[in-house]
Write a structure and sequence with these properties.
alpha/beta, Serine Threonine Protein Phosphatase 5, Tetratricopeptide repeat, Rossmann fold, 9-stranded mixed sheet, 9 strands, 53% helix
Length: 382
């Protein structure tokens, strides 16, 4: 969630009672600090304290709505933001938040109507056009989405997400703009493990370890390379099965967390394909390469497959996950993540001389209590 949306509650109209306004402002600032510290339940309680004495306090309603949105409590988010919009009509920030909540709840038509209102109020708001672009993707209005993202980027040249979506929608080889993914995961490093394994019910690293174990029996794995290793969850899951494991990730802060585990032999920051192709420390040959929820941020995978193939030993294994689609080869969703079809993955396996050992459909994660479908693949280098 953009920080400018998170930090906007104190800028909304206060109660008309000056004493209540002062008290509410102090409490709202405390709530913002609690939110920044990741203490969302405590921040919600602080907002509720304000609403007990002033049920129409726009700032408290807005913050409560955005907190609920972050928690995935969509009914609460929509209700709070609708009340905030009624209390402070004509406030673009609230409408943008409401549009987000409606879109997350699977109501893109209503969300588009809210963004249209926001556009009338603030025709030069990049946040409005970015939100509208995401909704237009959900409505399968891709040409309109491209126009909206272009407008968002013209209004805010620093909007890396809009640039990312434009790059993904522009052609046959979509990639994230330089710096976008590292910044995304650097900001996420501290809460990454807790958020994934708890709130999102994320089990891909363990699923990879189980699949690899089933096809190696009791034999150990001499060496492995973990692409997009993040904080090291795959290394933890593989455990003693691997004698030595190296890791690559775009996020230096994620790598710092991985280093604290003491599992990885070598860690390097950068693009995985580039490092495999150029870094002598990652020349292999490896018995196993893994990529857990990495390709959802890459798009087309030809360069990744070529780099892995070059560094795997004969008979080496390649285990990875993708979010799945039944349409086309590669596409991007309004989540900002790429999806890949079985036909595309099978074609890559054939092109780069891999044998398909196993594929397993699974739920990659829960997103706002909605399961995200994916596939886990295990390939063997021929």
């Amino acid at each position: 969630m953009p920080s400018r949306l998170r930090k906007g509650a104190s800028q909304l109209p206060p109660t008309t009672n000056p004493v209540q306004a002062l008290e509410a402002g102090i409490t709202l600032n405390k709530a913002q600090k609690l939110w920044d510290d990741g203490k969302i339940p405590e921040a919600l309680h602080a907002c509720n304290d304000i609403l007990k004495t002033d049920p129409n306090h726009a700032g408290a309603l807005y913050m409560m709505g955005m907190l609920a949105l972050e928690l995935g409590a969509l009914d609460m988010a929509i209700g709070s933001l609708e009340r905030a919009a009624a209390s402070a009509p004509g406030t673009t920030r609230i409408l943008v938040g409401l549009g987000q909540a409606l879109a997350k709840s699977g109501q893109p038509v209503k969300a588009a109507a809210i963004y249209a209102k926001a556009m009338q109020l603030s025709p030069n708001s990049g946040a409005v056009y970015r939100g509208l672009g995401l909704v237009q993707l959900d409505l399968d209005q891709r040409p309109n989405a491209v126009k909206s993202f272009r407008k968002a980027l013209r209004l805010n040249a620093d909007d890396q997400f809009a640039a990312y979506m434009l790059a993904a929608l522009a052609g046959d080889a979509p990639v994230a703009p330089e710096g976008y993914v590292p910044a995304l995961f650097d900001s996420y490093a501290e809460q990454f493990d807790r958020h994934l394994t708890g709130k999102l019910a994320y089990r891909v690293p363990q699923e990879i370890a189980d699949m690899v174990g089933a096809h190696t029996g009791g034999d150990g794995i001499g060496s492995a390379v973990d692409l997009g290793c993040g904080t090291g969850l795959v290394g933890v899951a593989l455990g003693s099965r691997v004698a030595a494991i190296d890791g690559i990730d775009l996020s230096p802060k994620m790598l710092a967390k991985a280093a604290e585990r003491g599992i990885y032999r070598t860690l390097r920051a950068g693009d995985a394909a580039d490092i495999l192709n150029t870094d002598a420390g990652f020349s292999g040959p490896y018995d196993l390469a893994t990529a857990a929820d990495v390709f959802i941020y890459i798009g087309r995978l030809e360069a990744s497959f070529a780099a892995v193939k070059a560094r795997l030993a004969p008979g080496g294994l390649f285990a990875f996950s993708v979010e799945s689609t039944d349409h086309g080869e590669v596409d991007i969703r309004s989540s900002g993540r790429f999806v890949h079809s079985h036909g595309y993955i099978a074609g890559l396996a054939e092109t780069f001389a891999f044998t398909l050992v196993e594929e397993k459909a699974l739920v990659i994660r829960q997103e706002i209590d909605v399961p995200v479908p994916g596939v886990l693949y295990l390939l063997r280098s021929s």
